[in-house]
From TrEMBL, chains A, B:
<keyword id="KW-0805">Transcription regulation</keyword>
<dbReference type="GO" id="GO:0003700">
    <property type="term" value="F:DNA-binding transcription factor activity"/>
</dbReference>
<dbReference type="InterPro" id="IPR036388">
    <property type="entry name" value="WH-like_DNA-bd_sf"/>
</dbReference>
<dbReference type="GO" id="GO:0045892">
    <property type="term" value="P:negative regulation of DNA-templated transcription"/>
</dbReference>
<dbReference type="GO" id="GO:1900376">
    <property type="term" value="P:regulation of secondary metabolite biosynthetic process"/>
</dbReference>
<dbReference type="Pfam" id="PF01475">
    <property type="entry name" value="FUR"/>
</dbReference>
<dbReference type="InterPro" id="IPR043135">
    <property type="entry name" value="Fur_C"/>
</dbReference>
<comment type="similarity">
    <text>Belongs to the Fur family.</text>
</comment>
<keyword id="KW-0862">Zinc</keyword>
<dbReference type="GO" id="GO:0000976">
    <property type="term" value="F:transcription cis-regulatory region binding"/>
</dbReference>
<dbReference type="InterPro" id="IPR036390">
    <property type="entry name" value="WH_DNA-bd_sf"/>
</dbReference>
<keyword id="KW-0804">Transcription</keyword>
<dbReference type="InterPro" id="IPR002481">
    <property type="entry name" value="FUR"/>
</dbReference>
<keyword id="KW-0678">Repressor</keyword>
<dbReference type="GO" id="GO:0008270">
    <property type="term" value="F:zinc ion binding"/>
</dbReference>
<protein>
    <recommendedName>
        <fullName>Zinc-specific metallo-regulatory protein</fullName>
    </recommendedName>
</protein>
<keyword id="KW-0238">DNA-binding</keyword>
Length: 137, 137
DNA sequence: ATTAACTTTGCAATAGTGTTGCACTAACTT
DNA sequence: AAGTTAGTGCAACACTATTGCAAAGTTAAT
């Protein structure tokens, strides 16, 4: 993905593109899976943890990425679809491979609609499936 | 719940009842919601964190309690049903109230059956719904 | 261009959760 | 009773997440 393209994307979500942000976004977009702060930190030795952290937070607030808490101990982040506003209808299942630790967005599997008991209201959900991915099987 | 009853329960799951274990189990059973290590620690000042931690781990291994990772930052634990073996068919949805931080087992809502793409196998899942509970509404 | 105002980054420190080694004690076995 | 095993308390540690603050970079206004 072109840097220019990324910057347009960020701007369209009201986030000023900076070198660091573009780099973080690019990495997430290109690897195509959910990455944790530590994962990202490893991929570019030189960049400060807190800088990446703040980039992710900014992205999250502006629906550029969504967090995935896969139970591995660190929250991971994956790029959102263009139209995503991270509301309950945009959410999908995530798959966590217990062998390789990779976490994948199952965009083809929206989170099923749940009818809660009287009195409960909800606006968010996480549906994580743990198992073995084709690559590890 | 009687201590004797608890001890029988633990024994039936091959866990030797001790004062600490009985206490931890009793607390989880009586509060009827999922509690974290820190929650438990608070409830009985005198008991060591690591002791509670190990009790929970032992319980978990023997299907006496199940972990709930509700995204709050600490894993919580709730008592299992008698027949539970924590396999995919025993799992249910959990509700996390973002106002009060309480996490509740929705035992009436089993985790829906999901058809994954070819090549994926799974044996566990977490389905957390975030919203506001009746008490906080 | 120069200054002022605002934003982003790097660094260091901190809080919180989870986890383990080790020594001590309680419980169980023979 | 002596030996063996299991459970507990304490302290230390690893790791994730988060923040204050100062330095560097950007933008906007004179
Ligand atoms: Mn996703
Ligand atoms: Mn439950
Ligand atoms: Zn895998
Ligand atoms: Zn509530």
């Amino acid at each position: 993905m072109e840097n220019k393209e990324i910057d347009k994307k960020l701007e369209s979500k009201n986030v000023k593109p900076t070198a660091m942000r573009t780099l973080v976004y690019k990495t997430l977009a290109e690897t195509g899976k959910a990455l944790s702060l530590a994962d990202l930190e490893q991929r570019f030795e030189k960049v400060e943890r807190s800088t990446i952290f703040r980039a992710l937070k900014t992205f999250e607030e502006n629906f550029i990425v969504h967090p995935v808490d896969d139970g591995s101990g660190s929250v991971k982040y994956a790029v959102c679809d263009d139209e995503c506003t991270c509301n309950i209808h945009d959410l999908h299942v995530h798959f966590y491979c217990t062998r390789c630790g990779r976490t994948r967005c199952m965009k083809e599997l929206p989170i099923p609609n749940i009818k809660l008991p009287e009195g409960y209201t909800y606006d968010n959900a996480q549906f994580i499936i743990n198992g073995v991915c084709p690559r590890c099987d």
